[in-house]
Design goal:
With 147 residues, the protein is mostly helical. The protein has a domain of 80 residues: Winged helix-like DNA-binding domain superfamily/Winged helix DNA-binding domain (Arc Repressor Mutant, subunit A). It is built from 9 helices and 2 strands, in the order H-H-H-H-H-E-E-H-H-H-H. A two-stranded antiparallel sheet has the order 1-2. Helix 4 crosses helix 5. The longest helix has 13 residues. 17% of the residues are buried. The mean pLDDT is 87.
């Protein structure tokens, strides 16, 4: 089948739902929030037993208000849990976002959300019209690329 053949796409049951579209529109917010939490070592702090807003703020050298807003947002998107004023880590966050976990992948955010890559998607319509990229000729595969 060719890329233009849509017969392999399963129809979605039910009425139209814009949720997927809005989730995609807001994806940049989710990745920015995740990057901030990783840089603050918020997931690691919670894994270490630091679970209240006040304690997390102290451990991460951040404001209580900022930690509460960030942590509540992470709870809404499923990367944290919250019960009786204490935050916790769901399994994926515990395994992949705690710096002390052998399966930690948080360091990938530095590359995957580097300014170069983010800027490369600044104006996709224009890039598609031109058939080019905003990255230097070597792009991210350049031997000296440091993100």
């Amino acid at each position: 089948m060719s890329a233009t053949d849509s017969s392999d796409a399963a129809p979605r049951p039910g009425p139209p739902d814009p949720a997927e579209i809005f989730d995609t529109i807001n994806a940049h917010q989710r990745s920015a929030v995740l990057r901030g939490a990783i840089e603050l070592e918020l997931f690691t702090a919670i894994a270490e037993g630091v679970t209240t807003t006040e304690a997390i703020a102290s451990r991460c050298d951040a404001s209580e208000r900022g930690v509460r807003i960030l942590s509540d947002y992470l709870t809404v998107i499923g990367l944290l849990t919250k019960k009786d004023g204490h935050y916790g880590l769901p399994i994926n966050s515990a395994v992949f976002l705690d710096k002390n976990s052998p399966a930690y992948i948080g360091s990938a955010v530095g590359f995957m959300n580097s300014p170069d890559l983010i800027n490369a998607f600044e104006n996709v319509a224009d890039l598609v019209r031109r058939g080019t990229t905003l990255l230097d000729p070597g792009g991210t595969v350049e031997s000296e690329y440091d993100g």
